Amino acid sequence: MARRARVLAACLALLATLAALAYDRNPLTRAAQDHAETVAAISAATYVSLRAVNAFLSAAQEVEVGGSLVVSGSAQPLKVLEPIDDTIERIAGLIFLLMAVSGVLAVAMGPVGGIGWALVALAALCALVPRARLPGLRALARWMGAYGLFLGLALPLAFVLAAVFADAMTARSYARHEAAVAELTAGITPADVTAETGTWQDIDRYRRLAGTLYSQADALIAGYLGILAVFVFRIFVFPVVLLGLFFGIARHVARAGAP
Prior knowledge:
Blueprint: H1 2-21, H2 27-60, E1 65-66, E2 74-75, H3 82-127, H4 137-185, H5 203-215, H6 217-255
């Protein structure tokens, strides 16, 4: 029985070592990275859309209406867009942060998984050492094995499950919010502003578009917030819930048999 356990430990050490060395070719890790990269790419497109709206609203506030012969000076009637502009800018900042975190997760998933499998390999090697020589080594091996499996297996698995279930759970909500935002921002194009002069080519159309954004500001902000909530659920909430479960299992396994 002891011989069989030693053979299994040696095989586990070999397999874990191979998994640690080939972490960039691990299909589970690559699937988790794909999910993080997808969220980063979609959030990047949303960020660009937000910045376009932000630039449009900022420029709209600078439009001046000249005074008559009696009253000199000028006014900026579209300054009422400033609160909307500030809100859009804050949402854009949150989207950018989420995009950056998703990118970091996509890059770090592989190396972290490799570290996890290296811990599993070390734990298996420690199990080969007779208990009489180092009595406390088995407990250390148990901790390394449990947390190694958490990093190498549970972490990418949580994001793979998020890609399957979280995306399906939020698909309708995302499509609805994206359609609402696309409808409200469809008229914003780079051609609205002449880069050389900074003047508007069609001031009447521009004012109508600004008026639409002002009157539908609640729908526009709600749409962007809904998209942000979907991203947060896909890349944070759902994986964190699963990771909490997996972490609890890892702690239970690590403490099992402890004196």
